[in-house]
Design a protein that fits this description.
about 50 residues; 3 helices
């Protein structure tokens, strides 16, 4: 799980740099994907975090 999170952070930074879009936007997308699909959390729990 730690590797997936580290890869998501690195990918969010790379995408932010490449596309000139805020890195936090990509971070929120990866947080939703990891939280809902890998950790089995509901969207409301992800938003609450």
């Amino acid at each position: 799980m730690t590797v997936v999170i580290l890869v998501a952070i690195a990918l969010a930074i790379a995408l932010g740099y490449k596309t000139k879009i805020n890195t936090g936007f990509f971070g929120m997308i990866f947080a939703y994907i990891i939280g809902s699909f890998f950790m089995g959390l509901k969207p409301s729990a992800i938003i609450a975090m």
